[in-house]
Amino acid sequence: MSTLDADEVIAAGLAAGLDAVGVASAEPFESTRVALLERREQGLHGGMAFTYRNPDRSTDPSRTVPGARSLVVGAKGYRRSTPEVPDRAAGRVAAYARSDHYAKLRASLGHIAEMLRGVGHKASVAADDNALVDREAARRAGLGWYGKNSNILLPGHGSWFVLGSVITTAVLDPSTPVPDQCGPCRRCLDGCPTGAIVAPGVVDSRRCLAWLVQAEGDFPLEFRKALGDRIYGCDDCQEVCPPNRQTPSARDVGDDTAWVDLVELLGLEDDELMARYGRWYIPRREPRYVRRNALVALGNSGRGADPEVVETVGRYLSDPDPMLVRHADWAARRLGVGAAAPV
Fold first, then answer.
1. Which entry of 60, 128, 134, 329 is annotated as an active-site residue?
2. CB neighbours of 260 closer than 8 A, spacing ≥ 6?
3. Is 256 one of the annotated active-site residues of the chain?
4. Does 340 map to a domain?
5. Given 168, 200, 225, which residue is the final one in a domain?
6. Is the same domain home to 314 and 273?
C-alpha cells in the first residue's frame, strides 16, 4: 500500500476546487454525542432527525467506514450577491439553497476519496447526511471555530460555506484546531428574529425559521409574521455576524433563484413544483409544505391590493388540503382581503 501525507491530500482538495481543507482524527466525537442526546432530551431538536436520529452513528466515523483513522474535511463557499427584490410578491431563498452547492462539494471530496482509494485505502464521502456531524469534523480539522449561532466560522472568511468529509482508513497527521475568535460579540443571538439562539452555540430548533420551513405540520402561528418573505432557509444570524460582513459581498454575480414568484409557485402542479424545488429538504417529499411556506410569505407580502395575490389566496381558501386552507385563511386575514380583520 502506497502512502500519502496530509499536505498532499490537502493540496489535492484545494486543486479540486475546495476553498479550505483540513485533517482530523476519526476518533468518535464523544462530547458531541453527549450534547446531541442532551438537547434531544430537552426537545431542542424540534423533531429534527438530521444527526439527532442516531447520535451514536453520526458521531462515530467508523460506523460509516470500519477501521476509519482520519477525516479529510472540506469547505466550499456559496456566498453570492443577492439580486434586488422584484416588484411582485416574491419569496426569499437562503443563500445556501439557491443552487446545489453540495453537488459541487461532493464532487471535490470525491477526488480526494478516489486518490486515497487509488493507493489502497478505504474512503467514503459524507456530506449533508445523517452519517456525520460535519461541523464538529470541520472544527477538529482546523477549518474554523464554532460561532455562537453554532455555525463554523473560517478565519478571515466567515461561515458562508457548506461542509463535508472524506472518511478514510489512511493515517494522516491532523491539522491544528482554530481558537474561538467570537469574544464577547452576541450579534447573532440578538439578531435572530425568533430568539432561537438560546445560549452561545445552542439553537432551539422549535424557534428556528430555517428548521420550521422544513418541519411537518402547520407553520407555528406565533412565528408566521417573523417568517416574513422567506420560503426556504434563513440567513439572519449569518448576515449580522461581523466576520461575514467583512467578507466580499459576492463571489460572482447573483442569480434570480434568490427570489421565487409566489403567485407562480402556488399555481404549479406537483410534478412541476418538485422539478424546480425538489432538491430542497421537503417533509415526506410532499409539495404541500412548499405551498404552506409560500402562503405565509404571501400573507406577509403586503400586497392585498394585487388582484393576482387576492385570486391566489382565494383559490387556496377552497383547497382540498385542510392545512393549506388554514394557511390561506391566515394569509387572507393578514392581507385584509375581504371582510376579515388583518392579523
1. 128
2. 90, 91, 93, 231, 294
3. no
4. no
5. 168
6. yes
Query: Among 123-132, 172-181, 252-261, where is mean pLDDT lowest?
Result: 252-261
Predicted pLDDT at 252: 47
CA atoms within 13 A on the CB side of 257: 14
Distance CA 152, CA 158 (A): 8
Q: What is the DSSP string of 245-311?
A: HHS-S-SS---GGGEEEHHHHTT--HHHHHHHHTTS--GGG-THHHHHHHHHHHHTS--TT-HHHHH
Closest CA to 144 of 158, 164, 128: 158
18 and 105 together in one domain:
yes
How many residues does this entry show for the chain? 343
Instruction: State pLDDT tens for residues 229-242.
Output: 999 999 999 999 99
How confident is the model over 281-301, as pLDDT tens digits?
999 999 999 999 999 999 999
Residues 79 and 207 in one domain: no
